[in-house]
Amino acid sequence: MSETGRRIAITGANGFVGRAVSRALLERGIGARGLVRRDAQCEPGVDVRHIESLDAIAPDAFAGCDAVIHLAARVHVMADAAAQSQAVLEAYRAINVDGTLAAAESARRAGVTRFVMVSSIKALGESDPGRPFTEDDARNPPDAYGMSKAEAEVKLLEFGSRTGMEIAIVRPPLVYGPGVRANFLSMMSAIARGIPLPLGAIDARRSLVSVDNLASATIECALDPAAAGRLFHVTDGDDPSVADLARKLGERLGKPARLVPVPVGLLRGLGRLTGRTAQIDRLTGSLRLDSRRIRETLGWRAPQSLDEGLAATAAWFRSTRGR
Prior knowledge:
Layout: E1 7-11, H1 16-27, E2 31-36, E3 47-50, E4 67-70, H2 86-109, E5 114-118, H3 144-163, E6 166-171, E7 174-176, H4 182-192, E8 208-210, H5 211-223, E9 230-233, H6 242-253, H7 264-274, H8 277-284, H9 292-298, H10 306-320
Parallel strand pairs: 1-2, 1-4, 2-3, 4-5, 5-6, 6-9, 7-8
Helix pairs in contact: 1-5, 2-3, 4-6, 6-10, 7-8
């Protein structure tokens, strides 16, 4: 079947990644069906179907679709102690594990043959073991969100083995791009305002993936027969240090980053004193991914370089600030 005859369903089509996937599908002439809540807004051209929850999707919502790209998830991670409580873990499991399996079963009943789940590097850990993580490394999630994603990976692959549905899983690191929020947006805002950042002494390296690269890889996993039953890491192919990332952003924002070389040991001590140990560990520890498998198995190549992705993100940021 040609690409123009295909239709792919997207859960969470209204989100940061979902919008990028929707745009990429439509640009390729592939139909995009968005499964979202009633108050959600999707990209123009998306065939919207409203759902109440992941575990209440009727099979006809997936009718006529060749594949599903599953993005809907509970993603907010609370403070360190709270993120480990049993009640919080169950809340994550209800959506990220049980909801995922329910959506896959509904899609299977509708005759969908391929189900792609976007997971997270947090299924493996918070920092790498002195080398880039591979897809075969043992799962050691650091919090309730990571635990739920790790469990979803295992159970979804088991579901595929049991039912014959083709499962593919994509694990991204930090995702950035136009429309980004959270810590990445905070860093850009601080750089643009000339606020000194205590990052000058941090040489930890972090893998990144632009939202457009992630969309491209995820679509490839939905289309390529070789992706069935596989798990893939997806990155830009460049692992800048935290300090280098700030400098690159400063260059593209036209506002040189003001980096103060605060010793890493001092930052970690301050993290313990202020109850921000996890945040400081994320900032000062390396988290790199080996993404050779998707390149070697599917022949996928990132369409956007790190510099191009950062330039697009900075341009969006300036446009939202009226500059």
